[in-house]
Amino acid sequence: MYQDIPIKVTRVAQSRIGQVDFNNLPFGVEFTDHMFTADYIDGEWQNFQIEPLKPLSIHPGNMAWHYGQAIFEGMKAVLNPEGQPLLFRPDKHIERLNNSAYRMRMPDFPKEAFLKGIKMLVELEKHWIPKGEQSALYLRPLMIATDVHVGVRPSKTYKLIIMALPVGPYYNKPLNVLVQTKYIRGVEGGVGFAKTAGNYGAAMYPTELAKEKGYDQVVWMEPKEFRYVQEAGTMNIMFRLKDKVVTPMLTGAILPGITRDSILHILRDWGIPVSEQKVDINELLAAYKRGELIECFGAGTAAVVAHVSNLHYEGFDMGFDASSWELSKKIKQAITDIRNGKVEDKWGWTMSTAGALEEVVIS
Ligand code: COI
User: Fold this and answer.
1) Phi and psi at residue 221, in whole multiples of 5°?
2) Do 52 and 150 fall into the same domain?
């Protein structure tokens, strides 16, 4: 039913694109001209529209600010070699957004409306898609509570917004990472699997402490024994042990990464053994000392594949120099090539926006 919903499109009078330096695109700074929005009122989503991006006027009593009903996604669109925009796995992103919504007692957003709206937005903003191989149009769907109310209960109204940002790489260098043995991120039964704002807010203090000591990021550990690895601050984490790749299994405490899932597909397709399992830090350290832990890398939409140059655990540095990043470089290229439409998309992960604005009246 929602594939037929009307989406009103209102264009900006004057685009800002001429003010943007596409040769210098730090992550998260520049926004395109338009956003997709919808409102949840009286138990249903309505007011679907693409409109000029502008600040929202929000009452100080807005419940999202007080009680944390705020969830988001991060996804990417790029241009294929023919210059046509391609979205990467948008169906998985709306599925994950709705899983986050369910856990935070927020309403489902209809998949058909999401796909239709995001395709129209990207088609409208296609001139903003940067051309560099590691650049992209980063899409940030966000759902927030909008009831004005003091007192803890789920909001009855919500807003969904999709913003678009032309971005370069999230990380410009390999990462020096600290295994965190005091603070925790997620527990089984908690909200670790949800992309909810509070998970990121709670991570800031321990991450800043690590940065003060010269680290770029932390690796979170399961909270009972601080023995099993969970994920890195902004991405999932993978280890190459000789010719096998291991990664923490999804327990509900960690984010079910879409890049993580894509990499596992690619590795299995290449015949490389992969294991989603409990990853014991002591076993990693022992393997490193035996020369069997060859590579460590992060996997996320923003980060894509991030090489780890050092993993620090309780006084011990596990260093990985650039000559060891053989498999992670190959994976990064493979996922980038599929995303950019340069090689066969055998799993049907990319979605074209072609035709998304046909028959749409733009005012
Ligand atoms: C993403 O990878 O898209 C995220 O949302 C992570 C965030 C830290 C930028």
Assistant:
1) -120, 155
2) yes
